[in-house]
Write a structure and sequence with these properties.
Strand order of the largest sheet: 2-1-5-6-7
Number of helices: 5
Structural class: alpha/beta
Mean pLDDT: 95
Radius of gyration: 14 Å
CATH architecture: 3-Layer(aba) Sandwich
CATH topology: Rossmann fold
CATH class: Alpha Beta
Strand content: 15-25%
Helix content: 25-40%
CATH superfamily: NAD(P)-binding Rossmann-like Domain
Distance between the termini: 27 Å
Length: 144
């Protein structure tokens, strides 16, 4: 069972431990535009050795940084450890619901800077997932 976390202040080890444990990341809201933050973060995570699966219904079947783009989490043909959400906060509940409906659930829901949904976070935690809100994995890894 996931443990409720104070999402206003994470212990130092919390995000670090998550980023050491995950290997495959589904990046929801991935962009093919190099000027977009999601592109830069995806590029950084790939360089750090993570497997990154871009999710963007408008780019389905294309590639971003050599990685095939899927329309939805449920379209990804393999398991992934973490969902990194690069969408507005109002999209989070639907993404979390989709992640929780997968046959093999991810272990982490990560919401990017300025993305927060406490209700969706509580639902994910109740299902045993770890949650990070309003943080960027690329920034966390640079501080590691």
């Amino acid at each position: 069972m996931g443990q409720a976390v104070n999402h206003d202040h994470y212990p130092d080890h919390y995000t670090t431990d998550i980023l050491k444990a995950v290997k495959t990341i589904a990046l929801v809201g991935a962009s093919a535009n190099a000027a977009r933050p999601s592109y830069g973060v995806m590029q950084f995570l790939l360089r750090k050795g993570y497997n990154v699966i871009p999710v963007n219904p408008g780019l389905e079947g294309k590639e971003i940084l050599g990685q095939r783009v899927y329309a939805a989490l449920s379209d990804i043909p393999r398991a992934f450890d973490m969902v990194d959400i690069f969408r507005n906060s109002d999209a989070v509940a639907g993404i979390v619901d989709e992640a929780l409906s997968l046959p093999i659930k991810p272990s982490v829901i990560w919401m990017q800077l300025e993305v927060r949904d406490d209700e969706a976070a509580a639902k994910a935690e109740a299902a045993g997932l770890q949650v990070v809100m309003n943080r960027c994995p690329a920034i966390e890894l640079r501080h590691d």
